[in-house]
């Protein structure tokens, strides 16, 4: 949730005027049993389900689609195969009633058939998911170091390096806000303005300085609670106002919905990290409903950072994150 370019990274990094990607069909027959994959068409992605209660089902997805409903414990395989050498990412789309299922070994590069994805389900009367909040310490949805004047952090993704610096409190559009200055290696430079007020991460707006100067701000400010219990949804409707030199401001009414889907341990180029899985949907007067899934660092050095983002068109993961906290 650091910085916005034309919009915020968590709330709006891909939303404005993006198109909605089609979702995969359910990979089950008329009786709800998984259809067998055809290995001749590509690489099969599968694994094992354990702990699933009698009479319950869990819906799995690969790369954000290809829904597969597992009705019992044991082996599973997605009907939709993937090309050899391509990426796969298995996640839980719908939890069974009264249970919470977590995925391990769920992502990687499919060099051959994959059979070691593990889906482990436990009753929800097991230890309660701590949610996204962390009080005064770093949490999934926030890290106070992002507001410490002079602190810096850089994020490298597919060779592109984005460098951020916390500039301290300033006045932005009549309110007190923490300014973050950011530059990246493809020639962009921008300032973003945020704050933490009453347990909510407040996002005011951003100013693009290079390469195409403009400003985008929220009216009213976008306020996202940093503490969301498991499966809790938060929705807010705002105007996203864009101001370009020599042109009248343009406001686009946008509705954003956040849903916390629980803790998930994932393996990325940064290592194996416990994350908070957060679903985000957005719909505006100029675009239909679109959906992202984000995995935010739950604790430790990567708390609050975007560890993985899955959009309708791609999945991205930072290759390296470096920080210098005062």
From TrEMBL:
Keywords: Signal. The keyword Signal applies. Residues 1-24 form the signal peptide. It comes from the Bacteria. The keyword Signal applies. This is Lipoprotein.
């Amino acid at each position: 949730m650091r910085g916005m370019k034309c919009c915020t990274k968590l709330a709006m990094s891909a939303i404005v005027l993006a198109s909605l990607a089609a979702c995969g069909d359910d990979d089950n027959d008329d009786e709800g049993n998984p259809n067998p994959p055809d290995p001749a068409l590509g690489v099969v992605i599968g694994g094992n389900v354990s702990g699933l209660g009698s009479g319950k089902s869990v819906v799995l997805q690969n790369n954000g689609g290809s829904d597969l409903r597992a009705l019992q414990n044991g082996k599973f395989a997605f009907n939709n195969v993937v090309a050899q050498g391509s990426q796969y990412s298995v996640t839980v789309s719908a939890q069974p009633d009264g249970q919470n299922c977590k995925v391990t070994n769920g992502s990687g590069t499919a060099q051959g058939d994959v059979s070691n994805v593990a889906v482990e389900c436990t009753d929800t009367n097991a230890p309660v998911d701590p949610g996204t909040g962390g009080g005064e310490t770093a949490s999934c949805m926030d890290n106070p170091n992002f507001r410490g004047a002079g602190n810096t952090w850089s994020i490298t993704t597919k060779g592109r390096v984005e460098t951020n610096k916390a500039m301290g409190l300033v006045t932005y559009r009549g309110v007190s806000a923490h300014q973050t200055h950011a530059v990246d290696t493809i020639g962009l430079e921008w300032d973003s303005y945020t704050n933490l007020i009453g347990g909510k991460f407040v996002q005011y707006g951003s100013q693009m300085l290079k390469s195409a100067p403009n400003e985008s701000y929220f009216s009213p400010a976008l306020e996202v609670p940093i503490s969301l219990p498991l499966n809790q949804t938060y929705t807010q409707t705002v105007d996203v106002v864009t101001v370009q030199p020599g042109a009248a401001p343009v406001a686009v009414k946008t509705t954003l919905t956040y849903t916390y889907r629980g803790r998930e341990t994932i393996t990325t180029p940064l290592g194996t990290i416990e994350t908070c899985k957060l679903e985000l949907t957005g719909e505006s007067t100029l675009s239909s409903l679109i959906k992202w899934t984000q995995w935010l660092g739950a604790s430790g050095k990567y708390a609050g950072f975007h560890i993985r983002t899955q959009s309708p068109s791609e999945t991205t993961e930072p290759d390296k994150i470096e920080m210098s906290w005062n």
